[in-house]
Amino acid sequence: MTSEVPSSHQCSWLGSLSGYRTWSGLLWVLLVGISPGSWAQQGTQPQSIKIEGDITLGGLFPVHSRGPAGVPCGEIKREKGIHRLEAMLYALDQINSDPDLLPNITLGARILDTCSRDTYALEQSLTFVQALIQKDNSDVRCSNGEPPIIPKPERVVGVIGASGSSVSIMVANVLRLFAIPQISYASTAPELSDNSRYEFFSRVVPPDSYQAQAMVDIVKAMGWNYVSTLASEGNYGESGVDAFLQISREAGGLCIAQSIKIPREPKPGEFEKIIKRLMETSNARGVIIFANEDDIKRVLQTAKKANLTGHFLFVGSDSWGAKNSPIQDQEDVAEGAVTILPKRASIDGFDQYFTSRSLENNRRNMWFAEFWEDDFKCKLTRPGIKYEAGRRKCTGDERISRDSQYEQEGKVQFVIDAVYAMAHALHSMHLDLCAGYMGVCEKMDPVEGRMLLQYIRSVNFNGSAGTGVMFNENGDAPGRYDIFQYQLSNVSNPGYKLIGQWTNHLRLNPEEMQWSGGDRKIPESVCSFPCESGERKKMVKGVPCCWHCELCDGYQYLLDEFSCDMCPFDMRPLKNRTGCRPTPIIKLEWSSPWAIIPVFLAILGILATTGVIATFIRFNDTPIVRASGRELSYVLLTGIFLIYLITFLMIAEPSVAVCAFRRLLLGLGMCISYSAMLTKTNRIYRIFEQGKKSVTPPKFISPTSQLIITFILISVQLLGVFIWFGVMPPHTIIDYEEQKPPNPEFARGVLKCDMSDLSLILCLSYSIVLMITCTVYAIKSRGVPETFNEAKPIGFTMYTTCIIWLAFVPIFFGTAQSTEKMFIQTTTLTVSMSLSATVSLGMLYIPKVYVIIFHPEQNVQKRKRSFKAVVQAATVTTQLSQKSSDKQNGESKIEPDRSQ
Question: How far apart are CA 596 and CA 811, in angstroms?
Fold first, then answer.
């Protein structure tokens, strides 16, 4: 086993290189886009580690970092480079010493440095395909004229690597052309799962599509629906974010506020702009970050500088994982960060192997001396190299882990598993093709790449960490991740704490999580907070996670989270507006202030009317009672009684019977009263007018005639009511519109009879016509002598009644829009009717009762007068009115015959 750096003066190598350049140079320019002349500029074959064996495996490791502009390689990478490279050497040692795996077959290796640069890695990997290229050596001659001795290059059957996804993509494009299988230990870009483009590529780490799925599941488990993404420019970052975006779209319920790319070569102020952009959508506190360590560190630094410690809630990919380097000196900003890392374990056997490495026993690793200098911060003296002043000299007695800090690099397990996967595939292939043959048989010389790929895809064994190693049809390993959270506050041992796992589905322990300041409650990262009860979501166009909350107002309730709907007409919304409830039903109660006053007036009126009727009956044959026209008086008093009685029907709980009696009696009482009064005033008017013309009395002035006329007038009202009964039978209704204020809490359904305002007025209209007609006759009879008849009391009664009903109209109709319409209108109507009845009773009968009760001496028979006396009185009155305008209606003391 040697490390090879072939010298440029060897004739065989020059011939090889010349042949290579003449035949395949154009091929690389066309397919890959780089010039093979770049090797020639180096002047040497790429530096590599060569380990002899029956079957050779290739290895690609980022031994050095990317160099500055114009320089391919930078400083050595101890963990990602040397640790991983040594893991392959360790695995080869283990396999070659295993009697059950590839017995009698030794695995060799050709290991190259990619310098963390895809183009440089491609140039290096051309070493793997030299044996497969036909070379034209016809023009090659040695200086002595002898034919060149061209060594046969070893044939690489498979490649372990590369590390970075961009490097693996570049290399995979070349290896595919020559059917060389490739197994990566660290490349996770989803693009590499495309079997049609990278059919010879496999990997023992899960692709970022699984990682992205795990991150989507984590975000959803924490209740976030509005996050931003940060990606380092390049295949890893951009592909990871693209996978996250695609999966989140398919899953739904997750919106991306900002999707920001970090340039490869950030300009000054670039990270300040990134933080400023993230703060444009400050509600998106969750930040999904697929970035390299340097970018992660600078994002944290800038957030801290902007005084945003504790604002951002980072969810980091495996490039962050459980590493301390990205968060060094930024621990307070990183507190609460949830990170993901492929499930792995530390391999104890490798620790023992690596810590025992020294300059003496590890000469096969040509870069180990450089690692030694960097690890122990010392300088080895070499021939031709000047010793640096101020730096101690390496003694060679230093020991890893004892004299330097050592922690096994996270991908060591996967490097070992990748080598073992290749070994198991070769072992299965050997069993099938070389059954019973010791060593490599002819069927495996050379190893056919496409066949080996099939065996690789079929492997299934327990890896170095005890977990199964297998590949799906795209060459991807199963997704197995550990989920960590960086915790700082209120913990005895600050650092990354395991809080869950993801293996096809998420298992998260929220009770183990802790956030900035030691808070246990998961912070929110949402575009819009949930709407309050009774509020609907008005979505923001194009952003399904953002909305405005609008209250379902009026009589609306929340039909679903996006729309309001009106409650049915007989219902009102619940207080929280999540549904509807029946509207309370009310009626005018006897205890209501709106009822107490009308009832009080009605009771007084009924008592008074009853007293008048009783008095008249008791003194039925006395002159005053007889002179007032007993028959019509009883009819009129009956009407007054019914007017008072209607108050109780208007306040009583509506029912079919109550509604029927309301229709019947509402206008009947007034109709009876005003029919009787109209008949009286009409009789007086006709007698007085007839007396001016002749001594012949007018017709129909007898009591019987008066009763007949009165009942004819009353029958018109009754006929109208019974026609109404026939056309529309009485019934009750619940009016939900009458008391429906803007605030539904005050909404009420009013139980009432089926009498509209119009039908109520029509019911009273006939009585109003009688009242107006009676008033007209009262006016016409105003010239009758004061003591001659009842014309003047009836006139005053009608004038007052008209005033009452004129006041009633604006009050009744002016309150039609009031929420207490029923109460106001009922009270107005009943009080107006009671007042009109009281006016009639007070003007016409109370004075008579007063005389009958308190001055019986005046209740005596006066001499009778004939119709001739009436004629004389009318004549005298006419003459007096003509002579003196200040004496109205005459002062004649002549009284008519009241018995007529």
Answer: 19
What pLDDT shows up at residue 181?
Answer: 97
Residue for token pair 């496409």: 450
Rounded-to-integer distance, Cα 452 and Cα 106, Å: 17
**Mean predicted lDDT score pLDDT of the chain:** 83
Q: Whose CA is closest to 836, among 633, 672, 706, 649?
A: 672
**CATH classification of 48-132+152-205+348-367+409-470 is 3.90.1150.10, yes or no?**
no
What 848-852 contacts at long range (C-beta under 8 Å, 24+ apart), as own/partner pairs, is: 848/624, 848/625, 848/628, 849/611, 849/612, 849/615, 849/616, 851/624, 852/615, 852/619, 852/622, 852/624, 852/625
Tokens of 650: 């208007």
Answer yes or no: are the C-beta atoms of 469 and 417 closer than 8 Å.
Answer: yes
pLDDT tens for 773-811 read 888 887 877 666 654 456 677 778 888 888 888 887 777
Q: Compute how many other C-beta atoms are within 10 angstroms of the C-beta atom of residue 144.
A: 6
Please name which of 532, 431, 578, 474 lies closest in space to residue 104, comparing C-alpha atoms.
431
> Can you tell me which residue has the tokens 């919106």?
255
What's the rounded Cα separation, in Å, for the pair 700 and 216? Answer: 105
Which residues are CB-contacts of 354 (< 8 A; sequence separation ≥ 6)?
A: 83, 86, 90, 400, 406, 408
Sign of the C-alpha dihedral, residues 255, 258, 263, 266?
Answer: negative
3-class SS of residue 57: strand
Residue type, 114: T
Q: At what angle do helices 293-305 and 270-280 cross, to 10 degrees?
A: 70
Whether the Cβ atoms of residue 212 and residue 247 lie closer than 8 Å to each other: yes
Helix (H, G, I), strand (E, B) or coil at 186: coil
Cα-to-chain-centroid distance, residue 71: 54
Q: What angle do CA 692, 696, 702 make, to 5 degrees?
A: 105
Cα–Cα nearest to 151, from 4, 15, 9: 15
- Give the span between the Cα atoms of 188 and 480, in whole angstroms: 13
Picking from 447, 434, 525, 2, the residue whose alpha carbon sits closest to that of residue 226 is 525
Segments making up each domain of the chain, as ranges: 48-132+152-205+348-367+409-470, 535-582, 593-728+755-858
Tokens 């949930």 correspond to what residue? 530
Is the pTM higher than 0.85? no
856 with 863: CB under 8 angstroms? no
What is the number of other CB atoms lying within 10 angstroms of the CB of residue 392?
Answer: 10
Share of the chain above pLDDT 70, in %: 85
The identity of residue 783, as a single letter, is: G
Cα separation, 551 vs 53, whole angstroms? 78
Contact between 725 and 660 (Cβ < 8 Å): yes
Backbone angles phi, psi at 196, to 5 degrees: -75, -25
Element (H, E) at 144: none
Q: Give residue-wise pLDDT tens across range 404-444.
A: 999 999 899 999 999 999 999 999 999 999 988 888 999 99
CATH class of the structural domain 593-728+755-858: mainly alpha
Look at residues 373, 375, 446 and name the one whose alpha carbon lies nearest to residue 405: 375
Helices 656-693 and 821-844 cross at an angle (nearest 10°) of 40
Cβ atoms within 10 Å, residue 165: 27
DSSP E strand stretches across 305-388: 313-316, 338-342
User: Domain 535-582 in CATH: superfamily?
Assistant: GPCR, family 3, nine cysteines domain (2.10.50.30)
Cα distances (angstroms) measured from residue 87 to each of 79, 106, 415: 11, 17, 6
Spatial distance between the Cα atoms of 706 and 440, rounded to a whole number of angstroms: 144
* Residue 70 backbone zone (phi > 0: left; psi -120 to 50: alpha; other: beta): left
Contact 663, 760 (CB under 8 A): no
Can you spell out the DSSP letters for 512-575?
G---GGG--SPPP--SSPPPPTTEEEEEETTEEEEEEEEE--TTEEEEETTEEEEPPTTEEE-T
Beta bridge partners of 160: 59, 183
- Cα separation, 96 vs 771, whole angstroms: 128
